[in-house]
Design brief:
The chain has 278 residues and is an all-alpha fold. It is built from 13 helices and no strands. The chain is globular and about 70 Å long.
Length: 278
C-alpha cells in the first residue's frame, strides 16, 4: 500500500504528460475538421466555438475553387509509383549491401547515410537544374524519381536491419536446392521482411503524398501538380476563404491518416524489430 502511494505522484505526472502530448498532437486536427463545417463568419468570430450547423458548403466550395480531383489523381499516380518502385529498388540495394562481399560496400553505405545530413532545401536548385537539362521538368516521371530518391536513405536503413536479422543458412539451403539468386530473393527472402517493407512503404507514401517544395518548384501546370499545391487556391492577396481552405486541408490529410491507421501496427512492429535485431 505504501509503495502504491509512493508511485502515485509519478503516475499522475505521467498521465498529465501523456494528456498534454495527445492534446497538442490531436487538437489541431480536430480543430481543422470542426472548422471545415463552419462558416467564414463563425471562424472569424470565434475560432474555438462549435458550428451553428454542420454544413458541407466548405467542401463544395473547395471543389469549385480548385481542381482537387485532378490533383488527387496526380498525387495517387506519383505516390504509387514512387512508393512501389522506390521500396523495391531499395530492398534490392539493402540486400546486396548486407549479403554482398564486394569492395566498397561500407563506403556505399556511408555515402547513402551522408545524404541524411543534407538539408532538403539545399537540393532544390541542383535537382531543378538536372530536371530541366534531362527534359523531366513539369512531368510526373520527374516527381516520381525525386520522391523515390528522398525516401531512399530511411528505407535503406530500415530494410537493412531486417535483412540482417535473417539467418544466412536459409539462403544457403535455397541455393543447395537449386534456387538462383533472384528466385531466392523474391520468393524466400523478400516475404520474410514483409513488416519492414510495409513500414518503408508507409513512410515513403507519407513523404510523397505530403511533399510540397519539390512539387512547387518542379511543376508549372495543373496537369501534373499534386494535392498539397491545391491549398494555394484558397488564399490570395486580398481574400481568405477559411471554410474552403479547412475543407481542402481535411481532404488532403485524410488519406495519410487512413493509411497510417490501417498499417500502424506493421510500422511499429517493424521499427521495434529493426532497432532490436539490427
Amino acid at each position: 500500500m505504501k509503495t502504491q502511494k509512493k508511485h502515485l505522484p509519478l503516475t499522475l505526472l505521467q498521465g498529465v504528460f501523456l494528456a498534454f502530448i495527445t492534446l497538442i498532437s490531436v487538437g489541431p486536427l480536430v480543430w481543422i475538421v470542426i472548422s471545415s463545417f463552419k462558416t467564414n463568419k463563425e471562424i472569424l468570430d470565434s475560432a474555438f466555438s462549435l458550428p451553428s450547423r454542420f454544413s458541407l458548403d466548405g467542401y463544395l466550395a473547395a471543389l469549385k475553387m480548385s481542381p482537387i480531383f485532378q490533383f488527387y489523381g496526380n498525387s495517387l499516380i506519383i505516390t504509387f509509383f514512387s512508393t512501389v518502385g522506390g521500396v523495391l529498388i531499395v530492398a534490392m540495394a539493402a540486400y546486396v549491401i548486407v549479403r554482398g562481399k564486394f569492395f566498397g560496400s561500407r563506403f556505399l553505405l556511408l555515402l547513402f547515410s551522408s545524404s541524411l545530413l543534407i538539408p532538403v532545401s539545399a537540393l532544390l536548385m541542383p535537382i531543378y537544374i538536372i530536371m530541366m537539362r534531362i527534359g523531366l521538368y513539369d512531368t510526373r516521371t520527374g516527381l516520381v524519381l525525386v520522391y523515390a530518391a528522398l525516401g531512399l536513405p530511411t528505407s535503406l536503413f530500415l530494410l537493412r536491419a531486417h535483412f540482417q536479422s535473417i539467418p544466412i543458412s536459409i539462403e544457403e539451403a535455397a541455393y543447395v536446392d537449386g534456387c538462383g539468386f533472384f528466385r531466392t530473393f523474391f520468393t524466400i527472402v523478400l516475404p520474410m521482411v514483409k513488416p519492414g517493407l510495409a513500414a518503408a512503404a508507409v513512410l515513403q507514401f507519407l513523404t510523397s503524398w505530403n511533399e510540397f517544395m519539390f512539387a512547387l518548384i518542379l511543376t508549372k501546370s495543373n496537369r501534373v501538380r499534386t494535392i498539397p499545391l491545391a491549398l494555394s487556391y484558397f488564399t490570395s492577396q486580398f481574400t481568405f476563404n477559411y471554410t474552403a481552405m479547412f475543407a481542402a486541408l481535411v481532404m488532403v490529410i485524410l488519406p495519410s491518416i487512413v493509411i497510417f491507421v490501417l498499417l500502424q501496427e506493421q510500422v511499429t512492429d517493424s521499427l521495434v524489430a529493426g532497432s532490436v535485431k539490427g
